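Objective 1.3, modelling of assemblies. Example input:
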Amino acid sequence: SQTIHQWPATLVQPVGSPLSLECTVEGTSNPNLYWYRQAAGRGLQLLFYSVGIGQISSEVPQNLSASRPQDRQFILSSKKLLLSDSGFYLCAWNRERLNGYTFGSGTRLTVV
Amino acid sequence: GQQLNQSPQSMFIQEGEDVSMNCTSSSIFNTWLWYKQDPGEGPVLLIALYKAGELTSNGRLTAQFGITRKDSFLNISASIPSDVGIYFCAGAPSTSGTYKYIFGTGTRLKVLA
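Predicted structure (tokens):
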């Protein structure tokens, strides 16, 4: 069966520090991968998606970047965090174009 | 980014009551999804709908793909305390040539025992 792992679960980082969140999928190959952010009490905002190794599409201009160094690995990064980067970050995957997503358990990021 | 209109935003109900929520869009959608999110967790897929007019059940949950393809409904019958959470709709626009879903703003459900 397929599983998605996301870590860390929680993170407190100072303003200006770097960020690296990792997401891996097991039990499938060539998944579509996504990073979403959820502000407190709000809906889900798509940040990045990837349909293959090295292929990254950005949805909104921001202080973050994404990379896909391996087929089942998706990384969310920042060189210098801002207070506004705080939120709940979710990784998700699917295989076929219109299949629903499977989400990871999320990372709660607090920038202080 | 674009979001779906989801209502109500929140609701308090008594245990045993039925619940209804809906999602509307100005665009035609090919697929509608309904998710539930527990506090501090990622959303979990409840029901997926792929055809206009489709009615699908998952236990006490029933969802429908509107015949106009611009809306969807989720009903929960005989609510129980563990139904508490945030329910999100998501849709894939028919014009979308990519893999992205648009999410609603969520309905926060609280069940009073």
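The longest strand of chain B covers residues 29-37.
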